Every structure is written in structure tokens, then in C-alpha cells.
UniProtKB/TrEMBL annotation:
Highest taxon above the source species: Bacteria
Taxonomic classification: Bacteria, Pseudomonadati, Pseudomonadota, Gammaproteobacteria, Lysobacterales
Organism: Xylella fastidiosa
This protein's UniProt keywords: Two-component regulatory system
Protein name: Hpt domain-containing protein
Domain HPt: 1-84
Amino acid sequence: MFKGDAAKLVTQLQESVARQQANLLSQAADTLKSSSANVGALALSDAARRIESAAHSGDTKLADTMVALLFTEYERVKSAWGLKIAHRSSTE
């Protein structure tokens, strides 16, 4: 569930920052912040928190930079998640 939701939220973040839609950006960041923390992806959660903060303050330039950094972290989490699932499958 997290994997699919996170992918949609990352896309929403990218689209919202490109369109400078601070309210939508803040909402997507808040949701991703919470769901990432729930699965232990704390660096991803922190990046989402920073985006949420930038959106609240209207700093779209910082938000744009942070979305790019968040995407890198998201890819890392996605890769680690895949490795964990593959490892789990090979030990069963």
C-alpha cells in the first residue's frame, strides 16, 4: 500500500511544485511525511516535512529544490524496499 501511495504522492509533489500550487504541495507533503514515518522511511519523511514547511512559507524555490532531493530519497527507499522483499522471498 505504501509503495503505490508514495509513488502517487511523489508525482503530486512534482506537479504541484511545477505549477506553484502551495496548498496542494503542502497537502501531499503532509501525507507523505506521515506515511513514510509509519513505515520507517525517516529520511523521506523529513524531506517531506521540509517541503511542507517551504510550501507553508511560500518559498517555492526551496520547495522545488527539496522535491528534487525527496525524489532521490524516494528512489533509495524504493530500491531498499525491493531488496527487502526479494530477500524475504528467497528465505521463505
